[in-house]
């Protein structure tokens, strides 16, 4: 695949320059022009975010360059079935809105470790704080940087170190200057740009293919089914139905980087409407990111599926517009990296520095430490990303990515039982977060390398295995809680259990419409 850089015209560079100027201008305006209180809470945007900023920020955190490429590749290989990971998510985003958000905001917390700390004590908070820091640094930052760096290297021919460092520097400056508010405002601009450019790619592709009906006629019928038979090795319906919820609750309800913008909502209603808005935005994942792969299957058969996205871009975008794809990739990277750096800074500062080392810290001191941690997190993530790139003969990217998939069951169990079952004891949750995590990682190592599933077919599907691990850890939580008499006596019951604000009527109406639309989509995209 020829680097797009070799196909760029002067007007493309003008487009990129205009984008960077607007982005930096928005960042400076939010960071300095809008600041009224020097002691405001940068981590949570001074609790000022509205529903649109929340939705765009969450979506921007979710959408990365590797997702664009992977989604098109999945569309090329199997049609819209991978859209389940976007459309099925409405269930877990609804849980965030009506189950978790009232408790998070009612507890007035800055981080999710702080939330579980109020429920189960300081040991739980400490365990979860370090747990969260490590997973964000590896999964969101280092792996995201590496994947984005590889893509930019393919597109522009730049060295890995240069592309990674440039993205981190821009993101770090935004986080240091304005915190979550800057990320939220720039995310709105960047995600609108992503929608526009992706829609343009789809329109050009559909036009060249002869229309949507022509695309439908030239693809296998199963390409348009969200549920595939259980005999399908990649996306059988039962593992998706049972297993994806384990990862969905973890990702959308308990992951600090995803949830932080909801914690910064100006009110519970705005937080719940913001969650609803990302539910609508997730609908766009299929037509904007997966459909290009299906179009590519029609237009350019017999290519490497991993090159579907870049093939569409290089062949369909006319001279003068190819610079837009660079803009989109930069936008995705900055949104994801910025949100992740802000989360690392928030968790370390509030759950470790303030709680353990300087409980009397002023807001100025907290902000200063947060900025230092932001820079430190950026340096660490760059180092790990470059190390992954340098080590030959071992695919560390897939190693880390695969192992992280086995971290979902412990987190899902800890938060679901912590929120939904009042008799859950601190000892039970601490065991889940330590022993349970070790057990899941052990199963993951056995599944991936010692007795690899490709060789030993006795293993269930990956997502079904995740569901089984969830059941095991749930049983462990129940047993320990029932027999932990001392823990039951000492159990802390935080205020968020006693007084939960009920969702506003507008919230229920918006969610009712979204649920109806999603059910309609699932009915329409099956039986082909």
Automatic annotation (TrEMBL):
Entry's Gene Ontology cellular component terms: plasma membrane
Subcellular location: Membrane
NCBIfam families: sss (TIGR00813)
InterPro entries: Na/Glc_symporter_sf (IPR038377), Na/solute_symporter (IPR001734)
Top-level taxon of the source organism: Bacteria
Gene Ontology molecular functions: D-glucose:sodium symporter activity
UniProt record similarity statement: Belongs to the sodium:solute symporter (SSF) (TC 2.A.21) family.
Organism: Niastella yeongjuensis
CDD domains according to UniProt: SLC5sbd_SGLT1-like
Record's keyword terms, sorted: Membrane, Transmembrane, Transmembrane helix
Membrane-topology descriptor: Multi-pass membrane protein
Cleavable signal peptide: none
Transmembrane segments: 13-32, 53-79, 85-106, 127-148, 160-180, 192-215, 235-253, 273-300, 320-348, 369-388, 400-421, 428-450, 462-483, 507-525
Name of the molecule in the record: Na+/glucose cotransporter
């Amino acid at each position: 695949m020829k680097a797009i850089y070799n196909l760029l015209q002067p007007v493309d560079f003008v487009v990129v320059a205009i984008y960077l100027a607007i982005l930096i201008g928005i960042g400076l305006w939010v960071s300095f022009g809008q600041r009224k209180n020097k002691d405001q809470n940068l981590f949570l945007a001074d609790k000022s975010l509205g529903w649109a900023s929340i939705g765009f920020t969450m979506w921007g955190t979710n959408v990365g360059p590797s997702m664009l490429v992977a989604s098109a590749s999945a569309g090329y290989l199997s049609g819209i079935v991978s859209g389940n990971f976007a459309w099925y998510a409405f269930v877990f985003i609804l849980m965030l809105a009506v189950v978790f958000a009232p408790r998070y905001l009612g507890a007035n917390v800055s981080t999710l470790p702080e939330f579980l700390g109020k429920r189960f004590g300081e040991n739980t908070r400490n365990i979860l704080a370090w747990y969260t820091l490590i997973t964000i640094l590896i999964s969101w930052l280092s792996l995201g940087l590496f994947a984005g760096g590889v893509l930019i290297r393919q597109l522009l021919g730049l060295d890995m170190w240069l592309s990674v460092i440039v993205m981190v520097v821009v993101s770090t400056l935004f986080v240091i200057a304005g915190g979550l508010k800057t990320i939220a405002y720039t995310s709105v601009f960047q995600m609108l740009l992503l929608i526009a450019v992706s829609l343009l790619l789809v329109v050009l592709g559909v036009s060249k293919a002869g229309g949507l009906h022509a695309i439908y006629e030239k693809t296998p019928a199963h390409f348009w089914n969200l549920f595939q038979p259980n005999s399908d090795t990649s996306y059988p319906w039962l593992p998706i139905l049972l297993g994806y919820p384990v990862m969905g609750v973890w990702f959308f309800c308990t992951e600090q980087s995803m949830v932080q913008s909801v914690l910064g909502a100006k009110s519970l209603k705005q937080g719940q409407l913001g969650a609803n808005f990302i539910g609508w935005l997730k609908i766009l994942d299929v037509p904007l990111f997966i459909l290009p792969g299906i179009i590519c299957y029609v237009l350019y058969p017999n290519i490497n599926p991993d090159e579907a996205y870049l093939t569409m871009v290089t062949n369909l975008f006319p001279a003068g517009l190819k610079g837009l794809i660079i803009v989109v990739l930069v936008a995705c990277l900055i949104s994801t990296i910025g949100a992740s750096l802000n989360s690392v800074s928030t968790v370390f500062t509030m759950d470790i520095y303030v709680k353990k080392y300087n409980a009397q810290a002023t807001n100025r001191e907290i902000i200063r430490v947060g900025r230092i941690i932001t820079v430190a997190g950026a340096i660490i993530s760059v180092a790990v990303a470059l190390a992954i790139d340098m080590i030959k003969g071992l695919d560390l990217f897939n190693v880390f990515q695969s192992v992280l998939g086995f971290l979902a069951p412990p987190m899902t169990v800890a938060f679901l039982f912590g929120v939904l079952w009042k008799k859950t004891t601190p000892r039970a949750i601490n065991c889940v977060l330590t022993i349970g995590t070790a057990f899941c990682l052990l199963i993951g190592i056995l599944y991936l390398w010692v007795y690899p599933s490709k060789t030993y077919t006795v293993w269930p599907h990956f997502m079904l295995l995740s569901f089984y691990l969830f059941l095991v850890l749930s049983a462990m939580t129940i047993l320990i809680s029932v027999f932990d008499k001392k823990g039951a006596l000492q159990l802390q019951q935080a205020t968020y259990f006693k007084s939960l604000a009920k969702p506003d009527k507008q919230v229920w109406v918006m969610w009712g419409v979204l649920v109806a639309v999603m059910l309609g989509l699932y009915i329409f995209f099956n039986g082909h």
